[in-house]
Amino acid sequence: MKNVGLRYAVVAAFLMIIVFLISYLIGVHPFIEMSHLFFDLFIYGLVIFFAMNEFKKVINEGVLHFWQGMTIGFFLNIFSCGIYVIFLFLIMNFDENILISYQQEAIDFLEIKSVQYIESFGKEQYQNQLETIQETTILDLMLLGGLKKFISAMLVTPVFSILKRKT
């Protein structure tokens, strides 16, 4: 199970890195744009499906229990998130523009929605949010990126574990 999860983790991490790079190069910031959640769900769904399918058909003679599917998904998730976070660390230390552009785009978005935000949460919370954005570090973005990927995979894993189990 671990070998299948590790092998497919590399594929998932590679696909997520490609999506990150393409998004950043075309001007869509990967940490702000919500469409990345759908890409994450799609990539993880596809990769987890194939990993479970390979384990079930090639290694385990047509049988996959729920716990085996969850284990494969967990290994795949942990290692692909680890690879992705390492990539984020390297790219953000190489290109400081990623952090700066994140801060600027997040502030711009908050300013556009400032009236609604202040009505909902108050002026003090609005100021706190602006300060938080300005104090964001590379480590914060790395953890945020890794956490989003982890949650995406953990949403998809049980679904495919149920769908692919036994027969």
Helices and strands, with pairings:
Layout: H1 2-26, H2 35-59, H3 66-94, H4 97-112, H5 114-121, H6 123-134, H7 138-164
Helix pairs in contact: 1-2, 1-3, 2-3, 2-7, 3-7, 4-6, 5-6
Which key features would you list for this structure?
167 residues; mainly alpha; 7 helices; elongated
Could you describe the 3D structure shown?
There is one protein chain. This protein has one domain. 85% of the residues lie in helices and 0% in strands. The chain has helices at residues 2-26, 35-59, 66-94, 97-112, 114-121, 123-134, 138-164.
Question: Quick recap of the structure?
Answer:
With 167 residues, the chain is an all-alpha fold.
Could you tell me the strand content as a percent range? under 5%
Uncertain ranges: none
What's the pLDDT, averaged over the residues? 89
Overall geometric form: elongated
Question: Helix and strand string, N-terminal first?
Answer: HHHHHHH
Structural class: mainly alpha
N-to-C span? 18 Å
The domain count comes to 1
Report the strand count. 0
Query: In DSSP terms, counting alpha (H) and pi (I) runs of 4 or more, how many helices?
Result: 7
Query: Helical percent range?
Result: over 70%
Radius of gyration: 19 Å
Query: Major sheet: size, sense and barrel closure?
Result: none
